[in-house]
Design brief:
The chain is of the alpha+beta class. The chain is 45% helix and 22% strand. The protein contains five helices and six strands; from the N terminus they run βββββααβααα. It has helices at residues 63-73, 81-96, 105-119, 121-131, 137-151; strands spanning 11-19, 24-31, 37-43, 50-52, 58-60, 102-104. It has a three-stranded antiparallel beta sheet, with no helix packed on it. Strands 5-4-6 form a three-stranded mixed beta sheet.
């Protein structure tokens, strides 16, 4: 690390401690040349994730979009905010553990449906009806039949 005062190349870490709720490390350094002290912060570099929409438009990943879809699906259901947060955390972990840094929105939708199916069948059907854009009652009924067959 270069000294911000004299530009010397050699600096020494004299103290390290977690900062910002342990999301970064605060380091106190001292320059070997001018002996002045300064602070640096070290953070994990997050590689941005890009979502590929149905129309092939790419946009940055936004957790709040998953949360709002799940919240709408769970409206007036006996599902706590903690359960919803845990579900979104699990989906996000699966998304970020993938090798590629571009993910089709269809993959995210499938993950959400799988998790909602485990959590609450009504929330699942609500989400699926919007996500799969059911065109008529028959398509909707087929999805319900499929759900009932898997439960029995």
């Amino acid at each position: 690390m270069k000294c911000p005062f004299c530009g010397a190349e050699n600096t020494r870490v004299i103290d390290s401690r977690p900062a910002e709720e342990s999301n970064s490390i605060r380091r106190r350094r001292q320059c070997d040349a001018c002996r002045k002290r300064f602070t640096t912060y070290e953070k994990v570099e997050a590689i941005p994730l890009v979502v590929i929409k149905k129309d092939n438009i790419r946009e940055p990943y936004d957790r709040s979009k998953i949360e709002s879809g799940v919240f709408r699906s769970c409206h007036k259901r006996p599902i706590s905010v903690t359960q919803i947060t845990r579900l979104v955390d699990e989906i996000e972990t699966q998304i970020f553990n993938r090798e590629d840094k571009e993910i089709p929105s269809s993959v995210i939708g499938q993950l959400v449906m799988e998790k909602l199916k485990e959590l609450d069948p009504v929330a699942y059907v609500r989400f699926a009806s919007v996500y799969r854009e059911f065109k008529d009652v028959n398509t909707f009924m087929n999805e319900l039949k499929s759900l009932l067959e898997h439960e029995n």
